[in-house]
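So, can you check this record?

>
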Amino acid sequence: MSTLLPPLRPIPIRERISVIFVEYGEIDVLDGAFVVIDVNGVRTHIPVGGVACIMLEPGTRVSHRAVALAARVGTLLVWVGEAGVRLYASGQPGGARSDRLLYQARLALDENLRLKVVRKMYALRFGEEPPARRSVEQLRGIEGARVRRTYQLLANQYGVDWKGRDYDAQEWESADIPNRCLSAATACLYGVTEAAVLAARYAPAVGFIHTGKPLSFVYDIADVYKFETVVPIAFKVAAAHAGGNFERAVRLGCRDIFRQSKLLDRIIPDIEQILAAGEIPLPSAPVDSVKPALPELKGSGDAGHRA
């Protein structure tokens, strides 16, 4: 008798390529493969199951079958502006799991628990414990001052004329090169971080420092890594590129630093560590709750699997 093989499971986030950008092509599924077809009819195969996030730039069409396949294998599709500098919309493979959503919401709604989580974020981001007896608002102010100072220090280090993180999104072409490079870099980081947040089954909108945005929690987590990964890349490219396709250089630099820093290995464990700072357990279902009509099979992987 042949041995029954276990069901196929998506590749864990930590073992995937971080991000791929696609522009001016049609994405479809041909012969079971995820492919991009350019204007000349040339097909390029993308190993969709091994990618955390695919950024779809202007000029890209995506078929229903391609979206369904991406969701099935747990690859996040994000619709972005030219050069990836704006985030318009994203898919949501998997989505928040009810127990983790309730856990995350309880931490965010209780001021004492929220403060513990924010302090942990601060400690991971700056490598030191935050000042004692400070509110979330006070910690946000301290963080903002350190962030502005860090921007200026990096600008000085790379010889960039820095006038602050200030630009008009409606007048994008008039923004200076450093700000455009930073926006392209953070878009890459946000896409990868959102893919990890969804893989861990948490809600991107339920934030602790950032609130009121669809990606508040994504911004919270991404900020932990921003200055050790993408911000130096952005200033380095801004210093070296007076013209040309500097956004592409930023994307390539981000891809390399994600791999070198093993970022995808770190995000999900760090999310769990950050939320564990609240020191409360995951909630159990109410005793009178109705069980699922079709029970979910126990997966063979860790939190980095979406299936």
User: Anything to note?
Assistant: The first helix runs from residue 64 to 73. The chain has a mean pLDDT of 86.
